[in-house]
Records
---
Amino acid sequence: KQEVTQIPAALSVPEGENLVLNCSFTDSAIYNLQWFRQDPGKGLTSLLLIQSSQREQTSGRLNASLDKSSGRSTLYIAASQPGDSATYLCAGAVFQGAQKLVFGQGTRLTINP
Amino acid sequence: DGGITQSPKYLFRKEGQNVTLSCEQNLNHDAMYWYRQDPGQGLRLIYYSQIVNDFQKGDIAEGYSVSREKKESFPLTVTSAQKNPTAFYLCASSFNRVEFDYGYTFGSGTRLTVV
């Protein structure tokens, strides 16, 4: 059974810093891994999707990596801004007729001006 | 614009009452999903549907029911058998085909409160 863990649970950094959020998963037969952002009281916004055959994906200041052999993914945020403050969720997919996402509990990120 | 629409945004349920949460997508996605989010517990899968007229239980299906009569729609009913229904409910959809792996798209959620 796929289990996903995110560390740290919360992170507070000053504006402008580069930072890394960590995600680990137990089943290396992962179909894909997706990073989401959630603002308070809102739904989930997809940030990056890494398919199982890929090693990383980039979008603007965000870069996500996937290492299936070690069961790890990282989300790198460059030059952080106060608008990046949100909860970041990592989810690993297993394919059983449909993609079933298993979520970590998230990292609550605060960027201080 | 393509996307997923959940309604209502807020819903209040009295004890012993059934309520239905709506989820509609215009992304031509094959599969649809319902998740429940509680503080400190992350998202848990309630039900999912791969194709029309077919659905499977997720990890916490007790006290919930669904239907999938149309590809675009996947309503969730929270029945009186669900003893602790207060939560944030999220609907999502995706393609089923490997060649169309674009991940999940989520709706904006429905917050259900028991009064």
---
Amino acid sequence: NAGVTQTPKFRVLKTGQSMTLLCAQDMNHEYMYWYRQDPGMGLRLIHYSVGEGTTAKGEVPDGYNVSRLKKQNFLLGLESAAPSQTSVYFCASSYGGLRTPEAFFGQGTRLTVV
Amino acid sequence: AQKITQTQPGMFVQEKEAVTLDCTYDTSDQSYGLFWYKQPSSGEMIFLIYQGSYDEQNATEGRYSLNFQKARKSANLVISASQLGDSAMYFCAMREFGNEKLTFGTGTRLTIIP
């Protein structure tokens, strides 16, 4: 069972470059989330989606864009990377409603912007 | 406003003792869920336990129990008979079923001492 898969696992970007992080889930989950994790700050929600074609802003959306064109995929884009976006990024997915409500996480993507 | 507050950045506990990790939350929704996740040094996010806002009994999963006090808006995690393998970061999270946001606290780093 693949579960939630994030691509890539590691990346180094130069300031101003762009990139897309891919999150794919094979559990037919309605909801998907993108987080960043920084020391001492826990996991902060960047954007999330409650279904195919929908997206919503989280706590720290600036500098990021997302798309959910297919139910199983949730893409996180950085248009012009900044050193402040150096972080570990996690994707998560869950069913909607109260059925098995816990979120399943990917393994994380470690991004360094130099 | 901070939705999830974890006031213990770090804790040291003797092996085999019980430990309580604190979590308070803030929401105006009547329907919400509370979660605890464990993040070992390897980085993956492991779901531990869930409590729904309408659940009358405290959730239990093996050595984990959730001390849910709705009026105080607290959802403390209790780990009984701690083991060396319990050393990890622990995150409290809340999903409000109105907007479906899943937000996390800043975490508590638990270290079990032999």
